[in-house]
């Protein structure tokens, strides 16, 4: 099993690193949690990633699901900060237990690399599928 560790990603500028710190490992059906503490002073203001896994009833499929929440923080005239909006992204992968590991590896690698491609990012940022 993968051990929880901090995750470093690039900001939109493609240069600046953001570290999502390991906050809570998955246990008892609960999700593993990461937060970006440098992007918000209050816990509710920090972007957060949650990943959990479960098997289907028959035990033939392992599902891995993740949700990332990125809040937009605004500052009022009095200096107080609040959440104005949130962008939320999610993923779900179902891995059959009888599928060859090499096929699972390749399928997931290609899916995640497609999601990270500039073309897919642009569509998600703009809010419209390519025409």
Textual characterization of the structure:
This protein is α+β, with helices and mostly antiparallel strands. The chain has a domain at 7-97: 2-Layer Sandwich (MS2 Viral Coat Protein), CATH 3.30.380. The protein is 18% helix and 42% strand. The protein contains two helices and six strands, in the order ββββββαα. It has helices at residues 101-115, 118-126, and strands at 7-10, 17-24, 32-35, 48-55, 61-75, 81-96. A six-stranded antiparallel sheet has the order 1-2-3-4-5-6, with no helix packed on it. A hairpin with a 7-residue loop joins β2 (17-24) and β3. The longest helix is centred in the last third of the chain and has 15 residues, at 101-115. The N and C termini lie far apart (41 Å). The mean pLDDT is 96.
In short:
Helix content is 18%, strand content 42%.
Helix content: 10-25%
- Taking the alpha carbons of the first and last residues, their distance comes to 41 Å
Strand order of the largest sheet: 1-2-3-4-5-6
Largest sheet, if any? 6 strands, antiparallel
- CATH architecture call of the domain at 7-97: 2-Layer Sandwich
Structural class: alpha+beta
**H/I helix tally:** 2
Which terms summarize this structure?
131 residues, 6-stranded antiparallel beta sheet
Describe the secondary-structure layout.
Blueprint (H helix, E strand, L loop, with lengths): L6 E4 L6 E8 L7 E4 L12 E8 L5 E15 L5 E16 L4 H15 L2 H9 L5
């Amino acid at each position: 099993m993968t051990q929880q560790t901090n995750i470093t990603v690039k900001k939109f500028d493609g240069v600046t690193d953001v570290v999502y710190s390991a906050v809570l490992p998955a246990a008892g059906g609960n999700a593993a949690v990461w937060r970006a503490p440098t992007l918000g002073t209050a816990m509710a203001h920090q972007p957060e990633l949650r990943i959990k896994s479960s098997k289907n009833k028959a035990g033939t499929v392992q599902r891995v699901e993740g949700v990332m929440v990125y809040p937009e923080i605004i500052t009022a005239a009095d200096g107080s900060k609040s959440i104005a909006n949130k962008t939320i992204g999610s993923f779900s992968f179902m891995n059959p237990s009888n599928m060859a590991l090499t096929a699972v590896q390749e399928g997931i690698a290609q899916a995640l690399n497609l999601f990270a491609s500039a073309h897919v990012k642009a569509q998600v940022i703009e809010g419209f599928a390519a025409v």
